[in-house]
Amino acid sequence: MRAIQVKQAGGSFELVEIPTPTPGSGQVLIKVIACGICGGDEVCRSGMFPGMTYPRIPGHEAVGVITALGDQVSAAWVVGQRVGVGWHAGRCDNSEACEHCRRGNFFVCTKATGTGLTLHGGLAEYMVADQTALVAIPDTLDSIQAAGLLCAGLTVFNAIRLSNIRPGDTLAVAGIGGLGHLALQFGRKFGYRVVAISSSSAKRSDCLNKFGAHIFIDTTTEDVPARLAELRPKLTLGTSVNAKSITDLTPTWPSNAQLLIPV
């Protein structure tokens, strides 16, 4: 099969021909349909994540179809089923669950496995994934659209879901890129008053007419702290890790407001 591979820490992304993998116990083989490219793939190339070995295939926003099952795979997963695999590459099984998995915090499982980091990812024609890392993809959702939701989407979705914001409150999203444009759409569907903040005036139309924002703030022409003090967002998401932009997001807030920088 063809795959994108990093042969050593600090190496380059290379297109290679390698054997198609075989699923082991509790694993499935997936024919990849789509895989997003994320800034986290640079971590695969640089070797910054603990426990990495090489060569390694990056890619942690993968959607595809199950083509083979290993032993002891749950009846919930069948050949021909469309599934997704995100950064979270698996968790403890129920019989030997760590403290974090027992509490439902699977993302900090002591196995510390990451798709495209400690295990091969989805920038390949086929990939193997643990059954505990799978999510079923509904027929109504396009594979390309679904892929981006498995990392960028989850990052902002969970930031919103786990905050103290309620329908009718104001959500401000600073930085309208891969994460921010999804946060606007989630916020609108959740029933918030949505404010888009960007230094690109060219994004105004899409933010207001396509992504669901009620208000657009252009940081190049408007006083951002003053506008936010007026709008009083209950939750502000900063998707651009920039000291100046974060400082501008901290005017006088209403009580119990939150500033989150999802990473």
Automatic annotation (TrEMBL):
An example molecular function term from Gene Ontology annotations: alcohol dehydrogenase (NAD+) activity
**Alphabetical list of Pfam families matching this protein:** ADH_N
Keywords recorded for this protein, A-Z: Metal-binding, Oxidoreductase, Zinc
> What GO cellular component term, any one, is given?
cytoplasm
| SMART domains recorded | PKS_ER (SM00829)
Tell me which residues make up the Enoyl reductase (ER) domain.
10-261
Q: Which InterPro entries match?
A: ADH-like_N, ADH_Zn_CS, ER, GroES-like_sf, NAD(P)-bd_dom_sf
Q: Give the required cofactors.
A: Zn(2+)
Q: Which domain of life is it from?
A: Eukaryota
Fetch the Gene3D superfamilies from UniProt: Medium-chain alcohol dehydrogenases, catalytic domain, NAD(P)-binding Rossmann-like Domain
Under the heading PANTHER family, the entry gives: ALCOHOL DEHYDROGENASE 1-RELATED (PTHR42940), ALCOHOL DEHYDROGENASE-LIKE N-TERMINAL DOMAIN-CONTAINING PROTEIN (PTHR42940:SF7)
**Annotated family:** Belongs to the zinc-containing alcohol dehydrogenase family.
Q: What is this protein called?
A: Alcohol dehydrogenase
Species name for this entry?
Mycena venus
The beginning of the lineage is: Eukaryota, Fungi, Dikarya, Basidiomycota, Agaricomycotina
